[in-house]
């Protein structure tokens, strides 16, 4: 049995990691809430963003935290263009086609990354990755603490955008009733593209926060999206507060499972939670019934 200090440290590190999981899940839940589809390209786009952070740091010497606003803008533009000029036209208004198109984008991106970077695993070579903050008997990873704070700030900003701005109100209107929104003059295709762009921007921020403590290879995004999908289901599909709460909870579950069951079995707890939520509360913690 582990001491109380070790258990508390595991819980704290789980919360810090869970905030970044929530950030990855935000893009997934936002796209689902408006477009009502699961974006199969989510993992590949996250991997692309992580490689962009690695390239910028390794070859250009740009710090991953300095890169956040620039990469967020670039990936917003990428997401907007993908939805407006590829996914939208190719799907012909059929949700089933959207799933196939995003799956195709995922395959293209993964194979492009494999062709460029091969299958090697890469990480940022920085002493900062190993720095810790001592709080009494607890040791807290500084990169994860920064990731936690940044994830909370981004979540709050996204909530404010959706709640207080005209664009946010238009996004919520399209999510509720796209035909009614179009009848009052809202450009639904534009809002779809804006939503997809915001989802990609959150991935870019998450990539900048992940890279100091995680590695990247062309297929790593799939593992993060499996966790993010569990977060979305737990918090409630389309719910931003749910994504944050679900991410924090899943981070703690993963950390404690890794502590008591071993690192290789750390994700067992996550998938048990996923099954239990589907069985007993399929709408999630904050989800509304259809």
Structural class: mainly alpha
Helical residue percent band: over 70%
Average the pLDDT over all residues and give the rounded result: 88
Order of helices and strands: HHHHEEHHHHHHH
Features of the shown structure:
single chain; 290 residues; mainly alpha; two-stranded antiparallel ribbon; 11 helices; 2 strands; 73% helix
Concise account of the structure shown:
By secondary structure, this protein is an all-alpha fold. The chain has helices spanning 4-35, 42-60, 68-91, 95-117, 142-164, 166-176, 178-183, 188-210, 220-235, 240-261, 268-280; strands spanning 132-135, 138-141.
Structural account:
There is one protein chain. This protein has 290 residues and is mainly alpha-helical. It has a domain at 23-218. It has eleven helices and two strands. The protein has helices at 4-35, 42-60, 68-91, 95-117, 142-164, 166-176, 178-183, 188-210, 220-235, 240-261, 268-280; strands at residues 132-135, 138-141. Strands 1-2 form a two-stranded antiparallel sheet. Strand 1 and strand 2 (138-141) form a beta hairpin. It is globular. The chain starts with a helix and ends in a 10-residue tail after the last helix. The mean pLDDT is 88. It is found in: Cell membrane. Belongs to the binding-protein-dependent transport system permease family. LivHM subfamily. This is Amino acid/amide ABC transporter membrane protein 1, HAAT family (TC 3.A.1.4.-). One of its GO terms (cellular component) is plasma membrane. The chain crosses the membrane at residues 12-34, 40-60, 67-86, 98-117, 145-162, 191-211, 223-253, 259-280.
